[in-house]
Amino acid sequence: MLLLHLSDVDEADWAAKLKAELAPYPVVQRGDAFDPAEVRYIFVWKPKPDAFEGLTGLKAVLSLGAGVDALLKHPDLPDAPIVRFVDKDLSQRMSDYVVAHVTMHHRLYSRFRADQQAKRWSQFYPPSASETTVGIMGMGVLGQDAVSRLKPLGFDLRSWSRTPKAIEGVEGFAGQALFGEFLGGTDILVNLLPLTPETAGILNYETFSKLRRGQLAGGPAIVNAARGGHQREADIVKALGDGTLAAASLDVFEVEPLPESSPLWEIETCYITPHIAAISDPASGVRYFGGIIRAHEEGKPLINVVDRSRGY
Ligand SMILES: NC(=O)c1ccc[n+]([C@@H]2O[C@H](COP(=O)([O-])OP(=O)(O)OC[C@H]3O[C@@H](n4cnc5c(N)ncnc54)[C@H](OP(=O)(O)O)[C@@H]3O)[C@@H](O)[C@H]2O)c1
């Protein structure tokens, strides 16, 4: 039996679609009458404290989110394997966001918009894409998809990950020891890391001050589409104020929704979106998780299982 426990999304819609996909396999929602001991799979998003109560026969926890940082903090998370959402449609949407914001900063959008507001005709030529280095933190599913879409645009690309990566046309840096070197050649920093104790707060003033200066007029830019816990917002305000950063694109925030009192709202060079960079689309999600349950019931191993010791 599959149990759905989805908060802040249309659980009934997911349930109807999963029932149709998996029939005759039983699919239940929290309000239904069922024996918790019969539940083999639980499909979760923002699970409540009692989400896993009585689920003694669980084979897997299925996470609607690609990121599992919040799920891993659940005090009663059972020992069962956690399968996270990995999906072409989600990756495409994330790369759409990344490409839009990288190209915007590369073409000095903030500068020319300010000129337009001042009715100032000031000719200035941004460097070509090949003279502009995009540094991507996180070279997993989303980082590699972003690479595949930025490469045809001609950007100079570099990556930073935990373990070394050999990706054609991308200069790879791995581990804390090479973080400074990675930053030192980066003009536009894109964050696609998972949120773990090691990566929390990584977008801070010290990081910003190590980015390359002099290549992009006005200074380097950052793009954060991963998690709000990666960024120190007070440091972003300071860095945008003193020119350490020329611009910041933020889709995620320390506190969501971003409080009205946040100074970020008022900063013209800060581009805010309300955590909409990428959504898990129900049609692909149903295909993905339906396929995972069917395959596992046929005795095949689970895929995209979270490594709890790494935290992602
Ligand atoms: N804003 C949104 O709407 C949205 C939507 C979906 C996902 N996300 C976020 O995007 C994140 C990334 O997703 P993904 O599917 O690409 O994850 P992934 O496939 O697990 O890839 C994670 C990457 O980060 C690297 N990494 C992890 N810890 C590191 C560390 N301490 N130092 C350096 N590199 C480290 C990993 O290195 P190795 O390759 O060496 O393991 C890997 O390359 C998710 O965790 C989620 O938080 C946001």
What do we call the CATH topology of the largest domain? Answer: Rossmann fold
* Individual helix count: 9
- Using the 3D structure, state the CATH architecture of the largest domain: 3-Layer(aba) Sandwich
The low-confidence parts are none
Task: Supply Rg.
Answer: 21 Å
- The average pLDDT is 97
Structural class: alpha/beta
Q: Give the ordered list of helices and strands.
A: EHEEEHEHHEHEEHEHEHEEH
Q: How are the SSEs placed, and which strands pair?
A:
Blueprint: E1 2-6, H1 11-22, E2 27-29, E3 41-45, E4 60-63, H2 69-72, E5 82-83, H3 88-106, H4 109-117, E6 133-137, H5 141-150, E7 156-161, E8 170-174, H6 179-184, E9 188-191, H7 205-209, E10 221-224, H8 233-242, E11 247-250, E12 270-272, H9 282-297
Parallel strand pairs: 1-2, 1-3, 3-4, 4-5, 6-7, 6-9, 7-8, 9-10, 10-11, 11-12
The structure holds NADP nicotinamide-adenine-dinucleotide phosphate (NAP).
The site of NADP nicotinamide-adenine-dinucleotide phosphate has 29 residues, from helix 5 and strand 7.
Short structural description:
With 312 residues, the chain is an alpha/beta fold. It has 9 helices and 12 strands. The longest helix is centred in the N-terminal third of the chain and has 19 residues.
What would the keywords be for this entry?
about 300 residues; alpha/beta; Rossmann fold; 7-stranded parallel beta sheet; 5-stranded parallel beta sheet; 9 helices; binds NADP nicotinamide-adenine-dinucleotide phosphate
